[in-house]
Amino acid sequence: MQDVLARRPAVRVNQLGYLPGRPMQATLVTDETGPLRFTVVRDDDVVVREGVSQPWPVRPDPTSGLTVHVLDLRGLPEGTFHLRAGAEHSHRFRVGARLHASLHDDALRFFTLLRSGADIDVPGYERPAGHPDTAVPAWTGPAARRLYPGWHDDGVYNVSGGWYDAGDYGKYVTSGAIAVWQLLGALDVRPGDARIVAECRWQLDWLLRMQVPAGRPLAGLAFHRVHGTTWSPLPGLPHLDPTERVLHRPSTTAALHLAAAAAAGARHLRSSDPAYAHRLEHAARSAYAAARRHPDLLAPDDHACHGGGPYDDADVADDVYWAATELWLATGDPGYEAAILRSPVHAADPFDTAGFDYDAVGAPARLDLALHGHGLADHDRVVDSLRAGADRLLDLQSRQPWGQPYAPAAGWAWGSNGRILNNLVVLGVAHLVTGDTAYLDAVATGTDYLLGRNALGQSYVTGHGTDHSHHQRTRQFGHDLDPTLPPPPPGALAGGANSVPAPDFPYDERLRGLPPQLCYLDEPTSEVTNDVCIRWNAPLVWVTALLTDR
């Protein structure tokens, strides 16, 4: 770790750059206790700004273990620059209005490259379709009986399409639903964007196929996941995967997540394709009804022993709330509004500064209620709760010398970069709802951390920044392990620092005891820090759309 830090400039900047009129800050790693003079130097070696650093009062910063200063660069004109502070310097960076446009495009293209059952013709990433999944059996046998006692389904199902979830070849409803919900949400920023719509439809079509059809056991629910009975070889292309694909038992949570995502799809796509929206609404209604008939059919935690992640969740109250929210927004049905208002989640605060994820979906529900639920009986209270949650993130961010609105005392979680982005989505929606530019400024500042202004001095997005992640853990982009395979594509977000060992996966001993921000390895075998995931790239698409178009 120390040799990595020694190779990186001590002045840490957003290596992509900064937006005109938004905050521009850098972080200097130094043991100096007093302020230091710094200069901003244009590409032609002309000094355009001089300033004085602000020593950070907390020494060392607990998230990084480093002593640092903060440099304020606000007001720089458009151009390309670098920083000098004493003998230290920064990477080059730009100031420009559409810095995030290419990042947005690459982050969205990531989903195309992860399509299951589709020929990929993107230059450099061409491959035949993998996993047609047109005739997948429900899982049977001793292991299935142990995991799902009493369940038996002798059917074979077409569950083709959708996106691979992460570096593996599994497809999971509870992960895939929140990812497509966030891409649909990007249409609030970019209405009618054809590329976003096309990707969303690819995933929504798959979700519809995961719903158990009428006449079959547990009809109306959704199969929880589909993948091999053993883990696919690492590395390896999807069309060469030798594993046997099976469907895992339907679950209450999968049905509720399908209902939420399909209802959101119906709302967003109704004006452009009423017939398709009707299909989505019908599926959402039936999934919600089935989940209410089977309220406690939960996915067990099988410790990822059977070829895929469990995506388990023991509490369905927030899932019911999210599904009812999206169905009410899509249909106006007063029954769903009543379910919202009587939910204990509606009375609670869903905004945790540790970030939301697939197993904590009260925040996604509240975001859409604040943005779209103007007819709700207590909409003013909903907006107030959003503002309060966003204000907590503003306060947290102001106490970080790196600009990230995330610093959980209990440790940085697996996929911390995704959680940071989800907090940026909360701030971004607060801006859309209230018009307050302080929240938009916070979104811009929060991206600094992801793009290089962090303890490691690296961008976590492949292809964006001078020192960026190159070696994510992924099967099909496994060039590090097999030179015949392509490398991770531009726009792929690494999971990021993870200081909390999980019981289900091996933790790298080199990371134990390090400050949270340093718990990351840009290595193709670091699953707990360097995997990729659709749930992390989706908010990256949302945030970059906001910063490009606002």
Q: What is the strand content?
A: 5-15%
What's the total count of β strands? 17
Mean pLDDT: 97
What quaternary form is this?
A: single chain
What top-tier CATH class of the largest domain fits best?
Mainly Alpha
Low-confidence stretches: none
Q: What's the architecture of the largest domain in CATH terms? A: Alpha/alpha barrel
Tally of DSSP helical segments: 16
Give the class from helix and strand content and strand pairing.
Answer: alpha+beta
Q: Roughly how much helix do the residues carry, as a percent range? A: 25-40%
Sheet of most strands:
6 strands, mixed
Query: How many structural domains?
Result: 2
Shape: globular
What distance separates the N and C termini? 38 Å
Rg calculated over all Cα atoms: 23 Å
CATH fold name of the largest domain, please? Answer: Glycosyltransferase
Features:
single chain, 550 residues, alpha+beta, Immunoglobulin-like, Glycosyltransferase, 2 domains, 6-stranded mixed sheet, 4-stranded antiparallel sheet, globular
Description:
The radius of gyration is 23 Å and the shape is globular. The model has no long low-confidence stretch (mean pLDDT about 95). Strand 4 (about 35-40) and strand 5 form a beta hairpin. The longest helix has 20 residues, at about 275-295. With about 550 residues, it is of the alpha+beta class. It contains 16 helices and 17 strands. It has helices at about 1-5, 100-115, 140-145, 175-190, 195-210, 250-270, 275-295, 315-330, 335-340, 345, 360-370, 380-400, 415-435, 435-450, 525-530, 535-550, and strands at about 10, 15-20, 25-30, 35-40, 45-50, 55, 70, 80-85, 90, 95, 135, 155, 170, 220-225, 225-230, 245, 250. It is about 40% helix and about 10% strand. About 55% of the residues are buried. The chain has 2 domains: about 1-95, Immunoglobulin-like (Sandwich); about 100-455 and about 530-550, Glycosyltransferase (Alpha/alpha barrel). The strands form 5 sheets. Strands 2, 4, 5, 8, 9 and 10 form a 6-stranded mixed beta sheet that branches. Strands 1-3-7-6 form a 4-stranded antiparallel beta sheet, with no helix packed on it.
